[in-house]
Design a protein that fits this description.
It is a single chain. The chain is 72% helix and 0% strand. By secondary structure, the chain is mostly helical. The protein has one domain. The termini are far apart.
């Protein structure tokens, strides 16, 4: 969590202070709730409380410290895709059940995409913060590359 301040200051200098604050918050959220260790019983999984069950398929499908769980860019992309799919499913179901009260994703998502295209800096700030938290996790694990990558690198280096 101590790294959220330098990350936020760096992004604030580059993209503006509001975006720096978004980066700092994303580093905290990524480290505490979207950790690469969601594929095992971990502190990050326990932080989800009763919602921890949403990570059950993710835990069953991915090996711990594999490229897909701990891989730079790939791991966070998969966690965000899984979380987005669940949110979209719940949102679609709620809109379908409530008829006109909740707008459907097909009505709202095009506007969101347009807004992100017009103002990409907040999205960049959040994604950099989330990915930064992954790199910090990997460095603290002692090996910044997933086990699969390290083995491949060692084999090709010996040749």
């Amino acid at each position: 969590m101590a790294w959220c301040l330098p990350a936020g200051l760096l992004m604030g200098w580059w993209l503006g202070w509001l975006n720096g604050a978004l980066t700092a918050i994303a580093v905290i959220v990524g480290g505490l709730w979207l950790s690469p260790d969601l594929d095992v019983r971990s502190t990050a999984l326990r932080r989800w409380g009763v919602l921890g069950g949403i990570w059950w398929p993710y835990r069953r499908l991915l090996r711990h410290r594999s490229l897909l769980s701990h891989g730079p860019l790939v791991g966070m992309a998969l966690r965000l895709a899984w979380l987005s799919a669940l949110v979209l499913l719940i949102w679609t179901t709620a809109a379908w059940l409530s008829a006109a009260v909740i707008p459907s994703p097909s009505q709202t998502l095009p506007g969101l995409v347009t807004t992100l295209k017009q103002h990409p800096k907040p999205l960049i700030s959040v994604l950099v913060g989330l990915e930064g938290s992954v790199w910090l996790h990997l460095i603290l694990d002692g090996d910044p590359l997933p086990a699969e990558w390290s083995n491949r690198w060692r084999r090709t280096r010996r040749r």
